[in-house]
Amino acid sequence: MSTSKRHKIFVVDDDVELVDMLSAFFSAQGYDVATAGWGEEAVAQIQKQGPDVVLLDIHLPDIDGYEICRRLRQSRRTQHLPIIFLTERRERGDRLTGLELGAVDYITKPFDIQELRLRVRNSLRRSSLHSLHNPITGLPEGQLVKEQLEAFLKTPDWGIVFASVRGLDTFRDRYGFVAADDVVRAVGLMIGSIIQGEDGAETFVGHSDSEDFVILAGATRCQRLAERCRARLEPAIQYFYPVEERSQVPNRPESQRLSVQVACLSGRDGEYNNVKEVGEALHAMLT
Description:
By secondary structure, the chain is an alpha/beta fold. It folds into two domains: 8-130, 3-Layer(aba) Sandwich (Rossmann fold); 143-286, Reverse transcriptase/Diguanylate cyclase domain (Alpha-Beta Plaits). It is built from ten helices and nine strands. The strands form two sheets. It has a five-stranded parallel sheet, sandwiched between helices. It has a four-stranded antiparallel sheet with strand order 7-8-6-9, sandwiched between helices. Strand 7 (204-209) and strand 8 form a beta hairpin. The longest helix has 20 residues, at 177-196. It is globular.
């Protein structure tokens, strides 16, 4: 569970020198940078890595930037991802095509690197105002969850359940993005069902990360909710595998199969001064 995040920029361009320059520049600005020089590779990696903004060239060796943008907009995971076209094409029609496909900005080469920095920053700010709920589960994430956690830790009887879906990257590589999204969505629905079966006390559920869930409840209810999550989620996770493979799943290394790990922490377990300390303690329970 993390309260601060380095934004990730994904650069798609086959100009190696330009990519190296952008990587060095934005890394120095405190961003994480990933790159691809081919369109098909870019689509796959963007879907897998989930960057915060994409800098996208139109002319690439295989598929062009328009097709990349089109595919990203068709996926629920990336349909709202900020995309900035970086291109030598200056014609009005090219610009309109990019904007019609959902690009948030369009900048032509050669460009002023400081102008690009500001456009990236502004795109991220606009995006953060709209990305307060996870696109797969609809549950709160990001700033909404951070604010809830900060306020909750100030109450005298706080308790937190942390449920982490493990092995999802391996599962996604083998069965695809739709199947992996179905896992996250189903876990969210099951957690909601577990909470509805409680006594009606106020409970908050959200994402601390796209594959991690947090449940905020009183210290007494915290342990009970954690036990119910363990009892229901772990047995259910095997049913996301194809029927013909389920019997073989337990034989796979733990790191290569789906699991849901659950931890519980409350103010009764010790003194925690901030969200970071709570997050570190919860993660330590799962390692």
